[in-house]
Amino acid sequence: MRRKQYSNQMPVNSIRSLLIVAVLFLCFGGWSRSAIGQTDAGEIESLSAITSRAEKGDALAQYQLGEMYYYGNSVPQKRDVALKWYEKSAEQGHADSQYSLGWIYDYGEGVQEDDTTALKWYTKAAEQGYADAQFHLAVMFEHELGATKNDAEAVRWYTKAAEQGNPDAEFCLGVMFDNGRGVPKDNAMAFRLYLKAAEKGNANAQHKLGVAYYNGKGVAKSHDKAFYWYTKAAEQGNADSQTSLGLMNLGHGVRRNEAEALKWLAKAAEQEHSHAQYLIGLMHKEGDGVPRNEVEGVRWLTMAAENGHVEAYYVLGLTFFNGEGVPKDGEIAAKWYTKAAEQGHAIAQANLGVMFYHGDGVPKNDAMALKWYIQAALQGNAVAQFNLAFMHHEGAGVPQDYVRAYAWYSISAAGGSKSARNNLDELAKFMTSDQIAEAKQTSLAIRAKL
């Protein structure tokens, strides 16, 4: 009996089977500097009086002048003059000025960014107990900015700032416990820290509470509470929570409401949130909550793909391969499959293998087929495992090798492939007992890598 390879051109998963996925947050960027003393100093004390005290070496007056020139309060905004007064004050140990200098060099506000100098001034302020400086110092240790990466040191400074009630530090310390970085992994502790920050209005922490309640991570599962916290964060513009609300309104934990789902997904998509764009694309492609429109679906999926969404790469590959709402085009399908495959997408890898093996949309290339089959097979893709076995069985593009063929057929059969089971039985008729024994050992060695 002549055997044939199997294609893996599988239909895209229904939107109803999608799960809400926790986003891995990193504590990096997006912070604003709180201005100490942004009041109109001229209403309290004249500029000349403050300047006089500053020129006589008064550290507080020097800091006040720095603030006035930095923000343009009662004086023209001049960042270079602000820097001069901050430096004079900071050298005298004034913590507000030290923190301000750290921020200025950290973010390149009127100067060239300089992580080393930022670290120096953050450290001086942090050692005086300045919570915002402690927080930013922790960020620098976590992300190797001007300092050697040191998660334990990041945790130490996040903890000091969190103990003073800094919500950004509470959130970031929660992330460290959530991911087990610098501390033992502790979901319950992460939850408690997220709750503290969320109650102070931290949108990222509110989102993480939504994730925790939705998945029962560190707390009893509650879709109602997940919905509450996602809404809090979404109303502050958090795109991850807007996307999660979109998914929940598609019937994941709350009553289905397509209009609400599309509303929140559209808000996230406007912020270039790739998963929201991907989900809107699927809704149009499948007619889920909106009229079916495959052209519109492809448009949204393309936006998601251009923002790096791996599953969108795969779905576009599938769409162009099958000609769903677009002209069938193997070359474009291969382009999108390749993008997904290079990011480790097993089905895309298997599909590319099929395309290269048959020369479908790409030049026939057995070596490339073998490459992608192996990568997909080692991720547990049963179709790739079967096709890899087939190549060794038939000597198609590789030297005929019954031992490796038997090994891969057995692995594919264990994954549920009936065709692999049939070919395994057929192949065994042409093998010696020693070959079968060797093949079983090879199979065990391969399984250990899966």
Structural description of this entry:
By secondary structure, the protein is mainly α. Helix 2 crosses helix 3, helix 9 packs antiparallel against helix 10 and helix 13 runs antiparallel to helix 14. The two termini are 31 Å apart.
What are the defining features of this structure?
450 residues, mainly alpha, 24 helices, 65% helix
Structural category is mainly alpha
Q: How do the helices and strands follow one another from N- to C-terminus? A: HHHHHHHHHHHHHHHHHHHHHHHH
Distance between the termini: 31 Å
Largest sheet: none
Rg result: 29 Å
The coarse silhouette is elongated
Classify the beta-strand content into a percent band. Answer: under 5%
Mean pLDDT, rounded to whole units? 91
Query: Which range best describes the helical content: under 10%, 10-25%, 25-40%, 40-55%, 55-70% or over 70%?
Result: 55-70%
What's the total number of strands?
0
The low-confidence parts are 10-24, 35-43
The tally of helices reads 24
